[in-house]
Amino acid sequence: MNRKCALKLLRGGPEGIQEWNRRVGELTETLDLRGADLQGQDLREAFLRGPLRSGIKIDLAEADLRAADLRKANLSTSNLEKANLAGAILNRAAFRYTWLDGADLTGVDLRKTSMSDTDLRRVKLRNALLTGARFKGTCLIGADLAETDLSGTHFGNTEFGDADLRGVNLRHVDLFGSRFKEADLRGADLTGANVKNCHFDDTKLEGTIFTDAAFEWTIVSGVDLRKAIGLTLEQLNSSKWNKKTRFPAYLPSRPQKGQWI
Predict the structure, then answer these.
(1) Is the pLDDT of residue 148 over 60?
(2) CA-CA distances (angstroms) from residue 169 to 51, 165, 184?
(3) Is the model's pLDDT at 54 over the cut of 70?
(4) Are 36 and 20 in contact (CB under 8 A)?
(5) Residue 261: is its pLDDT beyond 60?
(6) Is 22 helix (H, G, I), strand (E, B) or coil?
(7) Angle, CA 249 vertex, CA 243 and CA 252 arms, to 5°
(8) Distance CA 81, CA 63 (A)
């Protein structure tokens, strides 16, 4: 199947997708669909990955998928580097080991979608619908999630290094073991969140709310906590810090029981 034939099928509505799904398993080499115009197309349940266990991929780098309907599509292992998916419907799509470095996911619908083990470096995710989405083991280094409602999402061992998380809603979210090295969490709300074993190395936390957050074994080395909100001695006494850590003046005393690192 060549590029021209592939695009004709992908633009052919449900009947075209049915034929695409039948023929995609016959691919013998990576299919080059880089920069393809698939804006607004009905791609529901499309099998947009190469044949299973073949190593063959669908290359959709820099493709225009704005407002496309990709519900229940299988994009696992596909290359979507710098693709434009703004406003696309992606809920319940499969993304395991998908390459999305630099993709535009502004305003996408990812509700109840698993993004686990997916590369989302430098993606734009502002205003995305993420209720019930799963990001366990996902790489979000340098991602832009500012002002996004992340409540109801599932994280864990997620890489947030250098990510823009200003003003995000992470209330009661499980973030266990995630890493926020040099991330910007200013004004974020982590009320009741599970940040056990998280790493906040050199993270910006001015105005970040930690009321009732679970803090055991949390690393706050090199962090200025003076303007963080809602921290208690009990939380900080169970965390890890170093000599560069700065504590809030509103605490009744300096933390004593935490582990110095």
Answers:
(1) yes
(2) 39, 9, 13
(3) no
(4) no
(5) no
(6) helix
(7) 100
(8) 9
Does residue 4 have a pLDDT over 90? yes
For 184, the token pair is 């910007």
Q: Which pair of structure tokens corresponds to residue 24? A: 């995609």
* Cβ contact 69:42 at 8 Å: yes
100-129 in b/e burial notation, b at 16+ Cβ within 10 A?
Answer: bbbbbbbbbbbbebbbbebbbbbbbbbbbb
Evaluate whether 127 touches 108 at the Cβ level (below 8 Å): no
pTM of the model: 0.89
DSSP 92: T
Give residue 57's pLDDT. Answer: 87
Of 84, 9, 86, nearest to 48 by C-alpha is 9
Work out the mean pLDDT of the chain and round it to a whole number: 93
Q: Which amino acid is at 21?
A: N
- For residue 65 the two structure tokens come to 């998928």
User: Alpha-carbon dihedral of residues 210, 213, 215, 218, nearest 10 degrees?
Assistant: -60
> What is the C-alpha to C-alpha distance for residues 14 and 21, in angstroms, rounded to an integer?
10
Q: Average pLDDT, stretch 243-250?
A: 92
- Which tens digit of pLDDT belongs to each residue from 158-170? 999 999 999 999 9
> Hey, what are 71's tokens?
């519900």
Q: How far apart are CA 185 and CA 225, in angstroms?
A: 12
Q: Are 64 and 39 in contact (CB under 8 A)?
A: yes
The residues with which 259 forms a beta bridge, in sequence order, are 240
Ordered DSSP codes for 206-228: TT-B-TT-B-TT-B-TT-B-TT-
Contact predicate 88/68, CB 8 Å = yes
